[in-house]
Design brief:
Layout: H1 2-23, H2 29-54, H3 59-106, H4 109-115, H5 120-141, H6 147-172, H7 177-181, H8 186-199
Helix pairs in contact: 1-2, 1-5, 1-6, 2-3, 5-6, 6-8
């Protein structure tokens, strides 16, 4: 779930480059950015639904999905008429959010508290926000002169985003050293964090 949120933030801030590289312009970037939120919400739904299913509460996810569908049907028409494809994207995200909320509220209170225990939830938000700000600033500051440059910059900033997120995750205590080492560039992330710790 943590990786899904970080991936969502990364895709959202890099979407202007991705859109420019693939299609030659940035039209529709906002629609795609909103739609990327589905990644994080769906991951959270799957994680919470798995917990409920392990407790033989298999009906709850179905009820939650139906609640989301009702919200989608109720809001979609008016949203599309007023905001077009952006409205359709937002109603999809909102409907999935309703599904997640129903499932989350059904979880045992002890499990819900553990999600935020020891600051895990807040640390995750800090890491995601920090990575998003750093990569987002880079995306908007560095000039793009063509599609090839946009693709190269997207790949570059994706790599930087992974390093920044990993370093922040270690610094905040979100991930343990062992969990970071499981990442493709985990060893490099640990070297970066050790370098900054030496400078303190």
């Amino acid at each position: 779930m943590a990786v899904s949120l970080l991936a969502t933030v990364g895709l959202c801030v890099e979407m202007p480059l991705i859109n420019r590289g693939l299609f030659g312009d940035t039209d529709g970037t906002l629609v795609l950015q909103v739609y990327m939120l589905i990644i994080a919400v769906t991951a959270a739904i799957n994680a919470c639904a798995s917990i409920l299913q392990s407790q033989d509460m298999v009906r709850v996810p179905t009820i939650a999905i139906l609640a989301g569908v009702v919200v989608k049907v109720a809001l979609n028409g008016a949203a599309v008429r007023r905001w077009h494809t952006v409205g359709a994207s937002w109603t999809t995200v909102i409907s999935l959010g309703v599904t997640l909320l129903v499932i989350y509220l059904t979880l045992d209170p002890l499990i819900r508290r553990r999600i935020w225990a020891h600051g895990f939830g807040w640390r995750l938000l800090v890491v995601a926000a920090g990575m998003g700000v750093i990569v987002g600033m880079g995306v908007h500051v560095v000039p793009v002169t063509g599609r090839a440059v946009a693709i190269l910059l997207a790949v570059l900033w994706a790599g930087i985003g992974v390093l920044v997120a990993g370093a922040l995750a270690v610094w905040t205590g979100l991930f343990s050293h062992r969990e970071v080492l499981a990442l493709p560039v985990g060893a490099h992330i640990l070297r970066i964090t050790k370098y900054f710790h030496k400078g303190e």
